[in-house]
Amino acid sequence: MRMEDYPKAILEFEQRFTTEQACHDYLFQLRWPDGFCCPRCHCRKAWHTRRGLYRCEHCDFQVSVIAGTIFQSTRKPLRLWFRAIWYITNQKNGVSALGLQRTLGLSRYETVWTWLHKLRAAMVRPDRDRLSGIVEVDETYIGGVRSGKRGRGAAGKALVVIAVEDKGNRLGRIRLRRVVDASAKSLTPAVQEMVEPGSVVRTDDWNGYLKLPTEGYKRKIIRQEAAVGDNLLPLVNRVASLLKRWLQGTHHGAVHPSHLDYYLDEFTFRFNRRTSRSRGKLFYHLVQQAVAVDPITAKDIRGGPVLS
């Protein structure tokens, strides 16, 4: 499966993934496109055991196709996972746990809630490229009921750094990262994680971005003084508005602070693929990333489930 291989429509999806073996084979091709590779010794040859495992010919290590992936230790059929992924990627504005629970017909809300967070974590590619070119950066507060200025008056809120590529007549890719505060100690590494050095980083005059030039960025300050209400960073402001509207509309604002990172990952995944004409391609990319990221257990998901 060298080329991107995915169902183009729901009928093709339903016809293709009718058995566990079909789902298993699809995961195998995504995980090992060049053939089996032992996770321990990298040997290319293996025996297929009766238990459905692959036994390395060189070191005798046994591994399943789902070991070390999002699907590790699942007790549910892969067919059900595939249906969940298809449904999630085919909803333009995302899905709630309650909505997915009804669609899959599962009795336990907690199971669906955990699945959603696992898949949200898989929406971030481990080796994804950083933004480049001209990038607009600013922060926004998420959550809480009171407005507040940057760095103070923001009790109960989470501070999120937003980076947006400026593509002239349109918004480019985005990156979102939650930070502890708006100090240079927090903002500098956030920008380094999201933006390629050498890029032009457009910010306001906040001192938290003061060190960017020493880290290889070309900082462009948008007017050092501005009247209240001036839209100095329109790209970031637009993304911030869309993010808050999405959290409120799809999840009714019921996002626990300890779970916010998962929702930021989902919003980034959806936003950066908003122009894709193929929902099947989104399905392909999410399954591909689900076998590329490390497994996540329910214990890894901080806090408890909240109705969303």
Can you characterise this structure?
- The protein has 308 residues and is of the alpha/beta class.
- Among the domains are: 10-34 and 66-124 and 295-300, no CATH class; 134-246, Ribonuclease H-like superfamily/Ribonuclease H (Nucleotidyltransferase, domain 5, 2-Layer Sandwich).
- Helices cover 35% and strands 14% of the residues.
- The protein is built from 9 helices and 8 strands.
- The chain has a 5-stranded mixed sheet, sandwiched between helices.
- Helix 5 (109-122) crosses helix 8.
Task: Give a quick summary of the entry.
With 308 residues, the chain is an alpha/beta fold.
Write the layout of secondary structure elements.
Elements: H1 10-16, H2 20-31, E1 46-48, E2 54-56, E3 62-63, H3 78-89, H4 97-104, H5 109-122, E4 134-142, E5 158-166, E6 171-179, H6 184-194, E7 200-203, E8 218-221, H7 234-251, H8 260-272, H9 279-290
Parallel strand pairs: 4-7, 7-8
Antiparallel strand pairs: 1-2, 2-3, 4-5, 5-6
Descriptive tags:
disordered C terminus, 35% helix, single chain, 14% strand, Nucleotidyltransferase, domain 5, 308 residues, three-stranded antiparallel beta sheet, five-stranded mixed beta sheet, alpha/beta
Q: Tally the helices: what do you get?
A: 9
What is the CATH homology-level superfamily of the domain at 134-246?
Ribonuclease H-like superfamily/Ribonuclease H
| Element-by-element helix/strand order | HHEEEHHHEEEHEEHHH
Oligomer classification: single chain
**DSSP strand count:** 8
What structural class should be given to the helix and strand makeup? Answer: alpha/beta
> Helix coverage percent of residues?
25-40%
Note the gap between the termini. Answer: 37 Å
